Amino acid sequence: MVRSPCCDKMGLKKGPWTPEEDRILVSYIQQHGHPNWRALPKQAGLLRCGKSCRLRWTNYLRPDIKRGNFTREEEETIVKLHELLGNRWSAIAARLPGRTDNEIKNVWHTHLKKKLKTHHHSPSNLKPQPITLSKALNLDHTLHRQSPSGFGFPLVSPQTSSSEFSSNATVKDERMDASETFAWMDESFRLEEFSDEKSRTDDWLPLSKARSCSFNVDDGMEFWYNLLIKTGGPQELPEF
DNA sequence: AATAACGTCAACCGCTCCGCA
DNA sequence: TTGCGGAGCGGTTGACGTTAT
């Protein structure tokens, strides 16, 4: 694939943004939005590449960015989500309103990793462990007894591949066998209860079918996270 | 006071993903 | 089905600030 020339080869500016550049970018986006990042700097009159503009906007200039130090609750959330998702910073950021993936990544590397290191001396605790979903979330049989109703499974076609876990994956295999993972669930569970705005009912798979198919782990993690939020989970998870 | 060591974080790089023709 | 281009992601860098010696 032919790559587009990088900024310096095009005579574009790199490095820290000036207040004037910030002002121009913000002003332009407020008026026109950002339908095309590549075209934006030229149209706005900035000597920057689109990539740089997008980064500056999403990580610093966006009006909904939350400033200031991370709260204890936010840090705990990051730690828990990192256990679940690994280095998927954008996915973690999506759970922390006003925080950017870059910010979270920095906080993780500068603060949280060290904190965890001091609390867990075993090297095996320093990075995400290969998991089974049930093990990772410490789910047990009491959960479904407490639940008044049931739930289905996120439906993913068998041919769907999961490339999301190609690096820094927290799972050993890209696919997991649902019959093993969900062995503790019984047939009484109904389909709809755990569908939410992100998971339409028709995206959910009846338990009987789920038991005999594999599913995309990435979607599975999303499912498990939603499940934990809704049930309260075996651990103290943050509410969103 | 000087400077070395360390910490922080904004920004860049290179890769993959995804939509479209 | 394939190739292209734009967008987004995670890893890394380097400038700058702070602390320790």
What does this structure look like?
The radius of gyration is 22 Å and the shape is elongated. The strands form two sheets. Strands 1-3 form a two-stranded antiparallel sheet. It has three domains: 50 residues, Arc Repressor Mutant, subunit A, CATH 1.10.10.60; 54 residues, Orthogonal Bundle (Arc Repressor Mutant, subunit A), CATH 1.10.10.60; 99 residues, no CATH class. It starts with 18 loop residues before the first helix and ends in a 9-residue tail after the last helix. The protein is built from eleven helices and four strands, in the order ααααααααββαβαβα. The chain has 240 residues and is mainly α. It binds a DNA duplex (21 and 21 nucleotides) through helix 3 and helix 6.
Question: Any chance you could write out the topology, listing elements then pairs?
Answer:
Elements: H1 19-32, H2 40-44, H3 50-61, H4 72-85, H5 89-93, H6 101-119, H7 133-137, H8 142-146, E1 153-154, E2 175-177, H9 178-181, E3 204-205, H10 207-210, E4 214-216, H11 217-231
Antiparallel strand pairs: 1-3, 2-4
The protein binds a DNA duplex (21 and 21 nucleotides) through helix 3 and helix 6.
Number of domains: 3
> With helices defined by DSSP (H or I, 4 residues minimum), what is the helix count?
11
What is the residue-averaged pLDDT?
58
Helical content (DSSP H or I, runs of 4+): 40-55%
Which structural class should the secondary elements be placed in? mainly alpha
Number of distinct beta strands = 4
Q: What share of the residues does DSSP label as strand, in percent?
A: under 5%
Computed CA radius of gyration, to the nearest angstrom: 22 Å
Sequence of strands across the biggest β-sheet: 1-3
